[in-house]
Design goal:
It is found in: Membrane. The chain is of the alpha+beta class. The protein has 17 helices and eleven strands. Bound molecules: protoporphyrin IX containing FE.
C-alpha cells in the first residue's frame, strides 16, 4: 500500500472512530459558549484561513464576544470584546495565566524552559523576575539609551547619504536592521551584525512558525504526516539556532575564563545568565529550580525573538500609515518642530512632551497590533464565565485585532487611521484599558513593554523629524499596499520603499 493510500485510510478510520465516540459520549460541559457546527476530526481548523484574525472576527460577529470552536482535539475559546477580555485577562487572570504546549515551543524553546511558553508556576515566576530585573525593568531600559542613540544616529546618517544620492530606500530592511542591532547589543553586549551568527533570518522564520496554526498541535495523530511541512521547518530552524547559541555561549565562556565573574564589570544579559548557571534560582522554595545550559539557551532565544521584530514591525506599520496620510505626517512634523526644534535630533527626554506622536503610535497599535491574537493562553481549571462553562485546558485566543475595530467601542470610522480619536480620552497602553491591549494584560502581559514602547516612539519620531519622505515612482499614498502576513507577529507583506530627504538644519 502506498503512503498516500495509507494516510487516507488512517484518516477515515479516525473519522469513523471519532464519530462513534461523539455519538456515545455524554457532554461533559453543560453550557459551552456558542459556536458554529464542527467537522469531525478537524473541528473548525478549516475555517481559519491564511489570516485567522480576520476569519475569527467574522465568526465573532455571528456568535458573539465569547465564542467556542474546536481546533482538532483542542477546545478554543475566542474572546473578541473589551468586556470579555477583561473577564479573562483581569477578573480571572490567574486561571488563564498558563500557556499551551505546542510543537513550536517544544522545538524552538527547548520544551518550556524559556519564558514565553513556560507553564504558569514557580519556574515561570522566577525566570520572569530574573529577566525583568536584569534586562527589562525601567532602569535597565533607561540604561540602554546611549546605545539606542548611537544606533539610531548611524541609521540617520545612512539615510541622509541615501537621500543625497536620490536613492529609494528599503525602509523595512533598515528598520529591522536597526532593531536587530539594538536587540543584540542589549542582550549580548555587542553587535552581531558581521555575519558570524546570521540570526536575523532564522529568528524571523522562528516567529513565523511559532504563530502558525500547526495541525500537529490539534490533531496529534496527523502530526507524523506533517502535511503543512511545519515540523520539518521547525526541526531545521531549531538545529541552526541551537548551534548558534552554543557558539555564542562557548565564546562567552572562553572570555569568562580569562577574567573573574565576580568582578561584575560590564556584565550584559548573557554574562548574568552564565554567572547563574547551575545555581538554584529559588533557594527558599520547596522545589528548587536550577538554570542549566539548556535553560540559558531557551531564555536567550525567547528574549531575542520577543524583542527582535515586535518593535520593528510596529515602526514599519506606523510609518506606512503616515506615508498614506500626508496630513497626519505634517501634523507630527509640526509637533516635532515646535517641541524639538530643527537644529537637533530627537532625544528620549523629548518623548513625554510629544502628545501627537503618542496618539499616532496608539492608533497604529489599534489597527495593526503586532500580536493580533496575543500569545495563546491555556485555562488551568474548569471555570464558569458570563454563564458559560470553560473547560480546563481550553486554548484562550484573544482577538485584539478585532477589538481594535469594534464599532461599539470606537466610532464608526473604525478602519480609518485617525490619531485624533485619542484626543481628550484617557486610554493607555499598559493593559488597563481593554479596548487597546497591544501588550496583553495581567500576569502574562508583556514585560518588555517599556523597552518596546521607547524604541517604537523614538525611532518613529527620529525618522519623521529628520526626513521628508516620498513614495517611489509616483505611487499615490492611497495605493500603498497594506496587506498583512500572519505569524506570531502580524507584519506588512510588502516592504516599505521610500525616498528620504534630510530636513534638519
Ligand atoms: C512593540 C513592542 C512589543 C509588543 C507589541 C509586544 C507584545 C507582546 C504581547 C501581546 C505579549 C503577550 C501578552 C499576553 O499573553 O497577554 C507579549 C509577551 C511577551 N513579551 Fe512582548 N511585546 C513587545 C516588545 C517586547 C520586548 C522589547 C521584549 C523584551 C525582550 C518583550 C518580551 C516579552 C516576553 C518575555 C513575553 C512573554 C511574557 C510571559 O509569558 O510571561 N516584548 N509581548
Amino acid at each position: 500500500m502506498s503512503p498516500s493510500t495509507m494516510t487516507i485510510l488512517l484518516f477515515f478510520v479516525a473519522l469513523i472512530l471519532s464519530l462513534i465516540a461523539a455519538a456515545f459520549s455524554k457532554p461533559k460541559h453543560k453550557k459551552l459558549p456558542p459556536g458554529p457546527l464542527a467537522l469531525p476530526v478537524i473541528g473548525h481548523l478549516h475555517m481559519l484561513g491564511n489570516l485567522p484574525h480576520r476569519s475569527l472576527q467574522h465568526l465573532a460577529k455571528k456568535y458573539g464576544p465569547i465564542m467556542s470552536i474546536r481546533l482538532g482535539n483542542v477546545r478554543a475559546i475566542l474572546v473578541s470584546s473589551p468586556k470579555a477580555a477583561k473577564l479573562f485577562l483581569k477578573t480571572h487572570d490567574a486561571n488563564f495565566a498558563s500557556r499551551p504546549r505546542v510543537q513550536a515551543s517544544e522545538h524552538l524553546a527547548y520544551g518550556t524552559m524559556g519564558l514565553v511558553f513556560a507553564e504558569y508556576g514557580p519556574y515561570w515566576r522566577h525566570v520572569r523576575k530574573l529577566c525583568t530585573l536584569e534586562l527589562l525593568c525601567p532602569s535597565k531600559a533607561e540604561a540602554f539609551a546611549p546605545l539606542r542613540r548611537e544606533e539610531i544616529g548611524l541609521l540617520v546618517l545612512s539615510l541622509k547619504k541615501a537621500g543625497e544620492g536620490g536613492e529609494v530606500v528599503d525602509v523595512t530592511n533598515k528598520i529591522y536592521g536597526l532593531n536587530e542591532d539594538i536587540t543584540y547589543r542589549m542582550i549580548f553586549g555587542c553587535a552581531v551584525d558581521d555575519g558570524r551568527f546570521g540570526l536575523k533570518d532564522i529568528v524571523q522564520e522562528a516567529t513565523l512558525l511559532t504563530g502558525a496554526f500547526n495541525i500537529a498541535d490539534f490533531v496529534p495523530f496527523l502530526g507524523p504526516f506533517d502535511f503543512q511541512g511545519l515540523t520539518k521547518r521547525l526541526k531545521k530552524v531549531s538545529k541552526t539556532i541551537d548551534q548558534l547559541l552554543e557558539k555564542i555561549i562557548d565564546e562567552r565562556e572562553q572570555v569568562a575564563n580569562t577574567r573573574s565573574w565576580k568582578q561584575g564589570q560590564h556584565e550584559d544579559f548573557v554574562d548574568v545568565l552564565l554567572s547563574l548557571m547551575n545555581q538554584p534560582l529559588n533557594p527558599n522554595d520547596e522545589q528548587v529550580h536550577f538554570l542549566d545550559r539548556t535553560n540559558v539557551k531557551a531564555i536567550l532565544l525567547d528574549m531575542i525573538t520577543a524583542a527582535f521584530d515586535t518593535s520593528a514591525t510596529s515602526i514599519v506599520w506606523s510609518l506606512a500609515e503616515l506615508l498614506r496620510h500626508p496630513r497626519i505626517m505634517k501634523n507630527l512634523q509640526e509637533e516635532l518642530q515646535s517641541v524639538v526644534g530643527m537644529d537637533r535630533m530627537v532625544e528620549e527626554s523629548d518623548l513625554p512632551k510629544l502628545d501627537y506622536l503618542s496618539m499616532v503610535v496608539k492608533e497604529s497599535f489599534r489597527l495593526h497590533p503586532v500580536a493580533p491574537l496575543l500569545v495563546p493562553r491555556e485555562s488551568i481549571e474548569d471555570i464558569t464565565i458570563d454563564g458559560y462553562d470553560i473547560p480546563k485546558k481550553s486554548r484562550i485566543i484573544v482577538n485584539i485585532w478585532s477589538i481594535g475595530r469594534d464599532p461599539n467601542v470606537w466610532s464608526e470610522n473604525v478602519e480609518e487611521f485617525f490619531p485624533e480619536r485619542f484626543m481628550n480620552i484617557n486610554i493607555g497602553l499598559r493593559g488597563h484599558d481593554f479596548q487597546l491591549i497591544p501588550f496583553g494584560s495581567g500576569r502574562r502581559g508583556c514585560p518588555g513593554m517599556q523597552l518596546g514602547l521607547t524604541t517604537v516612539r523614538l525611532v518613529l519620531a527620529q525618522l519623521v523629524h529628520c526626513f521628508n519622505w516620498e513614495l517611489p515612482n509616483g505611487l499615490l499614498p492611497q495605493h500603498l499596499d497594506m496587506s498583512e502576513d500572519f505569524g506570531l507577529s502580524l507584519s506588512k507583506v510588502k516592504h516599505l520603499l521610500a525616498k528620504p530627504t534630510y530636513r534638519l538644519i
